[in-house]
Amino acid sequence: MTAKLCPLTDFLAFTLANTSVPNTLGYADFSAEFIARGIVQLTPKQPSSTDIVLSCGIHGNETAPIELCNQLLAEIARGELQLRQRLLLILGNPEAMLAETRFVDENLNRLFCGTHQIGPCNIERQRAAIIETAVAGFFADATRARIHWDLHTAIRGSEHEKFAVCPYQPERGYRQQTLALLAEASIEAFLFNHAAAHTFSYHSAHLFNADAFTVELGKVAPFGANDLTKLEKMACVLRKLIAAESINVGAERLAKTAFYQVRRVINKDHDSFRFSFSDDTANFTRFKQGDLIASSEQQSIFCDTAIEAIVFPNAKVPVGQRAALCVVPVPLAQVCM
Ligand SMILES: [Zn+2]
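Above: the input entities. Below: the structure tokens describing the complete assembly.
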């Protein structure tokens, strides 16, 4: 395979152009199987222990992680990065990437766990079905370790620039070693969900017992406008995971990390719903007891505990959908095994 013709050297360009690629390609140390548009499965020739899913662009305009994943694939294709674990790399929503939007018809990250089957067919529902099939095929062997990091960037700034959302998994709990690995990759805060969410990471955690996280890596920027040096620590940890290199991080790596538990969800109850703060208010901005958080013609929502922080506020969602999460700081011991 010459580098020019190899889809892995610029998988993003191949995906956006919807260029046809062979079903499989053989390389010196691994094989590549092109499962669907923007989805490639890499299998090393040597035995391996872990199945890694890396996904990005589930929201089409969150470009920095897409560029990072594209770069990692190119490094693998050029032999600069040794593939020693199985890897499923997913460019989440190519149509939304082309449209430079978060989504075309509907938020793809609310359609997993089969939710895409309920309601009219659209671009994101079709895509969720394709991604679910690819993941089920990849995670076929339950005896192997499973990791899924779903990489995003946030719409707004954040008091913690990089943070991970941990899917609700009351039976399993979270291992400190797993969180420490993310902290090593520059994650500054963890947000523990309180309920099922039908996000992609919840899908992998719930159905496949994977160590799965939604990973937020800073603020949205267009293709080409990202400073990937800001993601170097994340890239470094991903390279080591892919190359099966040992990563020595102890639980003490979590000493400076913040932990939050979701306390309640604010749903948009009426067209008149609005927040008490401006659109550019950062994630994890704190409110104190009695502060007004949001209001509509039907109700006013106040902070009703000592401290609450607000995450993912978005008053533009349809009525009935989640407009924000209210979270409270918690000690590590309360959320970890
Ligand atoms: Zn996102």
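Note for the figure: The radius of gyration is 20 Å.
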